[in-house]
Design a protein that fits this description.
This protein has about 170 residues and is mainly alpha-helical. The chain contains eight helices and no strands. It has one domain.
Length: about 170
């Protein structure tokens, strides 16, 4: 998460850096930066889920019709991956809107970012399990479990964000 924030800060143009020195404008620019970082992270995660879906689809095409149960399960997981990728891609802006005009302690903000890092790790676990499908018999179960864990974490995202303000 820090790398994305650093890249976004580095990408600011001269006008934004000057505007940061104008009273009241700095907070606005920081909120915009947070929104940009959130969008970059969500786009990256959605693209990772799309890649995992494509990997599952490619593996599915290599199977024979005799593996009907496995084919059905892979088809279901492929649909779930696509739906979750779209949900992540089109999710709300995250922390920026909640923090506008609200004082959030450093510890609360740190906890929020740790939850997001865990979400990123969960997406990586899904992608890893999808990559292992061709040669690993247990990969299908791990993919299913990782996707379930990711879905639950994503569904709890709004509650977690609201909890930051409690």
């Amino acid at each position: 998460m820090g790398d994305a924030m650093d890249r976004a800060r580095a990408a600011r143009n001269v006008l934004e850096r000057l505007g940061k020195r104008v009273p009241g404008l700095g907070g606005y620019l920081d909120r915009e930066l947070t929104r940009e970082v959130d969008q970059l992270v969500r786009a990256h995660l959605a693209n990772s889920l799309d890649a995992a879906r494509a990997t599952v689809a490619a593996h599915t095409r290599t199977l024979h019709l005799g593996a009907a149960g496995r084919l059905e399960r892979l088809g279901s997981l492929e649909k779930e991956l696509g739906a979750l990728a779209n949900a992540v891609r089109h999710a709300g802006s995250g922390y920026a809107g909640l923090f506008d005009g609200v004082k959030v302690g450093q510890a609360q903000l740190e906890a929020a970012y740790h939850r997001e890092i865990t979400f990123v790790e969960d997406v990586e676990a899904v992608a890893d399990a999808a990559e292992r499908l061709p040669g690993d018999e247990g990969a299908l179960d791990r993919l299913s479990e990782a996707l379930q864990k990711l879905r639950v974490r994503f569904e709890g995202r709004d509650q977690a964000l609201k909890g930051v303000l409690v």
